[in-house]
UniProtKB/TrEMBL annotation:
Protein name: Malate dehydrogenase
Limits of the Lactate/malate dehydrogenase N-terminal domain: 5-145
Naturally occurring in which organism (per UniProt): Labilithrix luteola
Keyword Oxidoreductase: yes
Pfam families xref list: Ldh_1_C, Ldh_1_N
List of residues binding NAD(+): 10-15, 34, 98, 121-123
UniProt KW keywords: NAD, Oxidoreductase, Tricarboxylic acid cycle
Stretches assigned to the Lactate/malate dehydrogenase C-terminal domain: 150-304
Length: 311
């Protein structure tokens, strides 16, 4: 078989949108996995999406399953297993529920999909991806967390609307942990190379940064559950970079082994993503203020990781 095999662990809101995007782009055959109690739900969603292919014109097979054996040899795994936030909750509030879930997923993935490139979306993101690597012992380049692409997308949208320019021309990167201390790198934020500060006043940029930091929560408050369209698109950009060896420069939660001065921690940093996974962490110059914000963000990630290590 020459088709790639994509395992989506969690067939909920993000899982369904992930399946739709992967099939639409014909990235491979899709296995939509959920727990036994939701196997029929996964199978139904898969069938609906497969039928969608005869209208939209894609040939990807989409299967629903609760049997890890079906995921044997997957090329890519995207993990959304767990519960999402409810209004008033922080991502960190999910740790008690989602920790046993990521451990279950990691143990099975280690057994059935040892060579997959793994993208974790479950929250609290930076701690969940850390735990995935700790349990599986997989190489550091084969696992990354999805947060930076999404947080950057939110930042870019708000900047584009404020500046009155196309969102296509806004370049920005949000680094650090996927929490309220995330770090939008203003020194690298441009409208197609032109510093964003030329279009938007500093105080307005500051309020956009605040909105970006709480961007996930804004949607949770409105919808009662967490976002899923943009999170799925962000993870698919990462999966596609791997499957098509695109060597994209994307902000991903990657394992730090001294980069930016941090060790044994996952956090959002600029990464080259290609056929070997996270191929390189790119160290960009940060201002003193940005370094300070990154340190604060790293400390809050470390706090959750410490909780995870003790549990
Ligand atoms: N293995 C596989 N799937 C599981 C497991 C498990 N051990 N435990 C739970 N799940 C499934 C649930 O049954 C559910 O169908 O994960 C799915 C999650 O789907 P949703 O509840 O719709 O949540 P979603 O919005 O997709 O978010 C998933 O991503 O962004 C994060 O904070 C979010 O942690 C949450 C995750």
């Amino acid at each position: 078989p020459t088709r790639k095999k994509i395992g989506l662990i969690g067939a909920g809101n993000i899982g369904g949108e992930l399946a739709r995007l992967c099939a639409n782009r014909e990235l491979g055959d899709v296995y939509l996995f959920d727990i036994a109690a939701k196997e029929n739900f996964a199978k139904g969603k898969a069938l609906d999406l497969e039928q969608n292919g005869s209208i939209l014109g894609y040939d990807s097979n989409i299967r629903g399953t609760s049997n890890w054996a079906d995921l044997e040899g997957a090329d890519v795994l995207i993990i959304t297993a767990g519960i999402p936030r409810k209004p008033g909750q922080s991502r960190d509030d999910l740790v008690a529920t989602n920790l046993p879930i990521i451990r279950d997923v990691a143990n099975n993935a280690k057994k059935h999909c040892p060579n997959a490139f793994v993208i974790v979306i479950s929250n609290p993101l930076d701690a969940m991806v850390y735990e995935y690597m700790r349990v599986t012992g997989c190489p550091k380049g084969k696992v990354a967390g999805m947060a930076g692409v999404l947080d950057s997308a939110r930042f870019q949208l708000f900047l584009a609307r404020e500046a009155g320019v196309s969102v296509k021309d806004v370049r920005a990167m949000v680094l650090g942990g996927h929490g309220d201390d995330m770090v939008p790198v203003l020194s690298m934020t441009t409208i197609n190379g032109v510093p964003a500060t030329q279009f938007i006043a500093k105080d307005k940029i500051q309020s956009i940064i605040e909105r970006t930091r709480k961007g996930g929560g804004e949607i949770v408050t409105l919808m009662g559950t967490s976002a899923y369209y943009a999170p799925a698109s962000a993870a698919v950009a990462m999966a596609e970079a791997y499957l098509l060896d695109q060597k994209r420069l994307l902000a991903c939660a990657a394992y730090l082994d001294g980069e930016y001065g941090y060790k044994d921690l996952f956090m959002g940093v600029p990464c080259i993503v290609g056929g070997n996974g996270v191929e390189k962490i790119v160290e960009i110059p940060l201002t003193e203020e940005e370094k300070g914000m990154l340190a604060k963000s790293a400390a809050s990630v470390q706090g959750i990781v410490d909780v995870v290590k003790k549990s």
